Amino acid sequence: MKQPIICLFLLTSLGLSAQDKKPKVSVSGNMGVTYEGYGLNRNPTGWTGYSQRKPWNQVRFTFQPTITTPKFSLPFNFNFNTTPTNFIGPYAGIGKQSFGQYITNPSNNFAVNPKYKWAELQLGTQYLNYSNLSTGDVGVFGAGFDLRPDVWRLKFFTGVSQQGVNFFSGGANGSYKRKNWMAQLGMEKEDSYALLFNFAKGKDDKNSIPLPPPGSVLPQEGFTMSVVGKVNIKGGWYFSTEGAQSVYTKDLFLPTSPTAVAMKPFLDGNTSTVKDFAAEGMIGRKSKNFDMGVKVKYIGAGFQTVGYPFMQPDRMDYLLNTRFNAFKNKTNVTASIGQRVNNVSNTALKAKQFIGNLNWFSQINDNWSVNINYNNFGFQSNSGINPFGIKNVSNDFGIAPTYTWSNTKMVHLLSLSYNYSKYDERDVITGLTTSNNTHTALLTYVPSFLTKDLTPDFSVMYFINKLPGFKTTLATLSTGLALPAMKKKLQLRGQLQYTFSKNNTFTANNNFIASCTIDAKLNKKTTWTNFLSTNYFKHGNELGLPFVGANYLESNFRTGLMYRFGK
Amino acid sequence: MKKIFYILSILFFAQHSIAQVNTNLVLSPNPPASLIQWSVSRETLTFIVFPSAQGIRGEYKIKTEIKLSDGTVIGKTDLNKSKTYTLSSATTIFNAADVVPLESMIFTGKYKNSLEKTGKLPADNYEICVQLVRPPDFAPFSEIKCKSFYLAATQLPILMKPYNEEVLDYDIAKTTIIFRWTPVVPTPKALVTYKILVFEVLENQNPVQAVRSNFPILTEEVRGVTQYIWQPRGIVDLSDNNANDSAMQQRKGWDGTIKGGSKKYVWIIQSFDYLGQPLGDGNINADGVSEPVAFFVRQKVKAIKIKDTDKQ
Questions:
Q1: DSSP assignment, residue A219?
Q2: CB contact under 8 A, A493 and B251
């Protein structure tokens, strides 16, 4: 912990001295520290109907200076906190961490990327995105390089993406230590063409923890290789494609088998090893006022890569996207239409999903503008062992006209937005479809003073959701005010919100939220930020005895100092 | 002479029928589609070999056949490679690792391809038949025990609304956000519990990193339904400086501009069966988590531009 602080002071002094006389060395970026406190009081005692939403105390450090010389740059990217807050994944529920677990915890980043001309050394935590099908979502703590001489690309990185974590009941889920490496080689000219070969591997150390985690957490190994091709040609046409092959072993405890699928020398297989491929392609044309593209993506049922651990396999997506501007750019339209088919491999029930989106904005004249949007999702699957198949259809339509007018002192903005949302679900046993209908209306008024620094806003929202046997109504009043103080060295903002909500015939729930922000410029480079919010909610009688009138008070306080390097 | 032959034959068959060992096969009616999971979830298949009342001893192998509902055999044990056991005087309990040992099973045609690609058999009705046989001639040593089962891989939900990179209007989202997702397919007999989790994507984080490291601002469980209307009650707030661009700066910033501001969030659905176990065989994280989807909350209506003429 001491070493980063020493570096921080050295860099601060370097940054300060560097500005005095137009130096060849410059420092940019920022550093800061933020404390966040959270409080929750629930009444009556014993009522647990509302859960904690933030850690009680958290301190976050940011240290991101970049030292630059004409040929050399040294960016630091240190973001770390004092309290682990992992909820999902191998570190979930972890309490006290070892040093190795701390530096590889995904909530902490410690990275230095010194760069000399076209050569970059990558040290520490890196989230490297090589391509859409090889690796991109996993942070690895280790070392590597990224070399880009002329059009050539040569990248390599190796390290640890997770440490071994012991399972204990009620605490961490447990995991095996996973080592990763990734490599890329090929040619690339930005905005012109690319031909890149990617390789990504991850392997769990099955002996990294004394007791294997229970359940289905098994030591795994995966290797993926892919080839990416991209071409941009005259007239705005572009084409890109990627094909990938993965080999994945789901249980390293099983003995290797000569007859199992494998990809030597990268991976020896056993009976849990699967091998499949994935591909995506995109073609389209871009111009100033018109874009159109088609994207197709196929992920095989057995395609799994350690670089994208949440990627959903066994699907085929088709999507047509378009965007155009018309009437002297006063109308902008974006739209997409497509389909996703799940279970192309037939190992599950086939399911189809229709996707359609439209957003239309028109500036009718200096005063009037209107925004219209429509979204449709449909999902259907075969019945399997049930009498009826699944059929869910979601339709959303929204229209939002806005009127602005002004005089010499003020600009007024009045916006009304109405959204209708319908969600139909078919019961797979009875075949009956239930409709869930939602109407939302929002009226917003924002006056902007041209001669004063006050910025208030007001909004009223009405929301109603109906489904058979249930009805929820909400009404929200909200107002905010922003203003500077102390010769603009202080920026203040406050917001108040009251919500009345009612479920069926129960008595109403009441919610009151207040928040304020105070930002102070201590000097040209240092800002002190503060945020305080409180949320009081009181239930009506919907919870029944003994919790009629149950309520909670939630508070959130954040204060931080941010220092900006450079000018 | 004929009489002696008949008597010997009767004695031989009687001895052989008596020499058969009693067994019992128990199979979950909806086993995991991934055959490797059969061994991991030990309750999927249990095969019990009872001790012989006649005190018979000897070696045996487990012969397994997997058939389609029309009787076509699509996979069977390679008895030359499979393990040999010795009949014990105590009850012996086997599970899927012994009865369906993938390293010594032979599958045919498209079933072999499917297993190599996915580790799963195609969705269909199947029958598994298990019998003890004696080496070296693999003569029957027990009755054949068969059980039917239905296989269909579980598809985890796909997150529909908010869709990936959707921009929600802050003035609505601070009061309600509607989440919709597709149900688990095929529909299990018992209601599925869906846990909805929302995480704020902090500055310098990517969405998956936020999922793996942050405390969720929403954790809510619903059963059997695929829509949840969230009332964020203050947790979705663009007033603080964690917004991508400070709301202060957006609305009336240091430079006098008025812009829209935004924050990024990511949501996931975690699916559980009626026992509280995560669903989704083949899910490499073994946690029933669907592919995360990121969305933005943005102050759309504040994106007004003050004309220079108005400023003067």
A1: -
A2: yes
Nearest Cα neighbor of A248 from A190, A301, A205 is: A301
Compute the distance between CA of residue A493 and CA of residue A38 in angstroms, rounded to an integer.
20
Q: Are A475 and A444 in contact (CB under 8 A)?
A: no
Question: Is B255 an 8 Å CB contact of chain A?
Answer: no
Nearest 5°: CA angle at B53, between B51 and B58? Answer: 55
A311 to chain B: nearest residue by CA? Answer: B291
Strands B293-298 and B166-169: parallel
Q: Which of B114, B216, B286 sits opposite A217 (nearest CB)?
A: B286
Contact yes or no for A285/A236 (Cβ under 8 A) = yes
- Separation between Cα atoms, residue A49 and residue B133, nearest integer Å: 59
Is B248's pLDDT higher than 50?
Answer: no
- Integer Cα distance of B40 and A175 in angstroms: 16
Burial B3-35 (b: 16+ CB within 10 A, else e): eeeeeeeeeeeeeeeebbbebebebeebbbbbb
* Surface of A (228-257) touching B: CB under 8 A: 248, 250-251, 254-255, 257
Q: What share of chain B is helix, strand, coil (3-state, %, to 5)?
A: 20, 35, 45
Backbone angles phi, psi at A15, to 5 degrees: -60, -40
Distance from chain centroid for Cα B238 = 38
Prediction pTM value: 0.89
For chain B, the first-to-last Cα distance in angstroms comes to: 129
What pLDDT, on the 0 to 100 scale, is given for residue A329?
84
A372 in Cβ contact with A333 (< 8 Å): no
- Top residue of A105, A310, A450, A467 to mutate, by most chain B CBs within 10 Å, is A310
- In angstroms, the CA B216 to CA B227 distance is 19
Mean of all residue pLDDT scores within chain A: 90
Return the exposure string of A530-561: e unless at least 16 CB atoms fall within 10 Å of the residue's CB, then b: ebbbbbbbebbebeeeebeebbbebebebebe
Q: Which two tokens stand for residue A53?
A: 């939403």
Tell whether the model's pLDDT for residue B103 goes beyond 90.
Answer: no
Mapped onto helix, strand or coil, the DSSP state of residue B2 is: helix
Please give the helix or strand (H or E) that residue A203 lies within, else none.
Answer: strand A193-205
A162 near B CB under 8 A: no
Model ipTM value:
0.91
Which of B285, B308, B309 is the best substitution to test chain A (most A C-beta atoms within 10 A)?
B285
Q: Which residues of A461-486 are buried (b: 16+ CB within 10 A; e: fewer)?
A: bebebebeeeebebbbebebbbbbee
Q: Which of A364, A360, A287 shows the shortest CA–CA distance to A328?
A: A364
End-to-end CA distance of chain A: 28
H/E stretch holding A557: strand A551-564
Give the Å distances, CA to CA, from B109 to A246, B74, B112, B152. Answer: 22, 8, 6, 19
CA dihedral over B91, B96, B101, B105, signed as positive or negative: positive
Cα–Cα distance measured from residue A64 to residue A15, given in angstroms and rounded to the nearest whole number: 12
- The string of pLDDT tens digits covering residues B3-42 is 665 555 554 444 444 457 889 999 987 788 888 888 877 7
Q: Of A394, A357, A397, whose CA–CA distance to A378 is shortest?
A: A394
Lowest mean pLDDT among A210-219, A304-313, A404-413, B249-258: B249-258
Rounded CA separation B269/A103 (Å): 28
pLDDT tens readout for residues A464-513 = 999 888 999 999 999 999 888 888 889 898 999 999 999 999 999 999 99
CA distances (Å), origin A40, targets A417, A468, A537, B307: 34, 35, 11, 45
Query: What is the Cα–Cα distance from B214 to B211, expressed in whole angstroms?
Result: 6
